[in-house]
Amino acid sequence: MTVDFSKYADGLVPAIIQDENTSKVLMLGFMNEEALAKTKELQKVTFFSRSKSRLWTKGEESGNYLLLKDIKVDCDNDTLLIKVNPIGPTCHTGADTCWNETNVSDNFLLQLESIIADRKN
């Protein structure tokens, strides 16, 4: 996996955080090379905080970690899609997502229908 951190002057790339199970987008953060390396090492998503000017592991204060499941790089090698298993709400406001959405699958009823059909057979 090659990420082009030099594309932006600050050396940061956007990191889209998506729930592995529901496919909901939970938040957007920024990573530099060090944050990406620490994310892989800890298996917990770590960002570069632009306001604090330091690395920040999501959940380091709240306990609401984002456990790493997969990392994908876009076609231009300058944006990350990080699939996670969230432990607790993602947003600092206490919401499931930073868009104040409930973190449930949009196709929940289809999944439930499939489970019921499987159990009938």
Structural summary, described in words:
This protein is of the alpha+beta class and 121 residues long. It has a single domain, classed as Ubiquitin-like (UB roll), CATH 3.10.20. The protein is 19% helix and 31% strand. The chain is built from two helices and six strands; from the N terminus they run ββαββββα. The chain has helices spanning 33-42, 108-120, and strands spanning 13-19, 25-31, 46-49, 54-57, 66-73, 80-86. Strands 2-1-6-5 form a four-stranded mixed beta sheet, covered by helices on one side. It has a two-stranded antiparallel sheet with strand order 3-4. The longest helix is centred in the C-terminal third of the chain and has 13 residues, at 108-120. The N and C termini lie far apart (43 Å). The mean pLDDT is 93.
Question: What's a concise summary of this model?
Answer:
Helices cover 19% and strands 31% of the residues.
